[in-house]
Amino acid sequence: MGEMIQFKRPDGKTCPGYLATPKAGANAPAFVVIQEWWGLNDQIKKTADRLAEQGYRALVPDLYRGKVASDKDEASHMMDGLNFPDAAEQDIRGAVQYLKPTSTKVAVGGFCMGGALTILAALRVPEMDAGACFYGIPPAAIADPAKIKTPLIFHFANQDTWCTPEKVNELEAAVQRSGSKFEMYRYNAQHAFMNEQRPEVYEPASAKQAWDRTLAFLRKVMV
After folding, report:
1. Non-local CB neighbours of 67 within 8 Å, separated by 6+ positions
2. How much is the pTM?
3. Fold classification of 2-221 (topology level)
């Protein structure tokens, strides 16, 4: 369903990405999908395909430029080496700008590392119209959630050792101060419960509920 493309960043450099196009074609609303720390793998491509089936032009910027991690140590190393502000302001913003001329509304959403980058993008990508954050929180040093203006939906797992319930409560309090339109959901699940390729943490009921809530949220705010 999808194809690899190259798109321009605001600084003029190029970024590769996976683009899945719906039947409605180039005029459909769009969604920039941000990878987990694993990279642009088959699972995240399938997520873009699922969004295309729901009528969205879905573009996944390849933040690691072709590298895909095979284990957690490698994934952690690649995530630690990623320049988060550059990824948000250049790769993600470039993806939004690529989609924007024909798609009047563009959302950004991601998982794990991609969830953290979604929050960062909400602060640094002015063309972004909405966001969906799945179990990710960026470092406080580079992102103040109290300054978010973009409508966002958040999904977190109660058994998450990274985005702990305490950190999620702090995030919710900060976003409430922002005055932005948002929805926050918590699930009786573990980190990465949306990833069907990881049976040890995948939680089908929570995954379906989070997916359906996200689509409903986007229908409300992307009009």
Report:
1. 39, 78
2. 0.98
3. Rossmann fold (3.40.50)
Look at residues 27, 51, 29, 28 and name the one whose alpha carbon lies nearest to residue 18: 51
Please choose, from the candidates 193, 204, 153, 195, the residue with its C-alpha nearest in 3D space to the C-alpha of residue 46: 195
DSSP structural state of residue 117: H
Q: Is pLDDT of 195 > 90?
A: yes
- Distance, CA of 200 to CA of 168 (rounded, Å): 23
* φ/ψ of residue 36, rounded to 5: -75, 180
Type and span of the H or E element at 32: strand 30-34
| Per-residue pLDDT at 223 | 82
The residue among 131, 126, 121, 129 whose CA lies nearest residue 104 is 129
Closest CA to 136 of 107, 164, 96, 175: 164
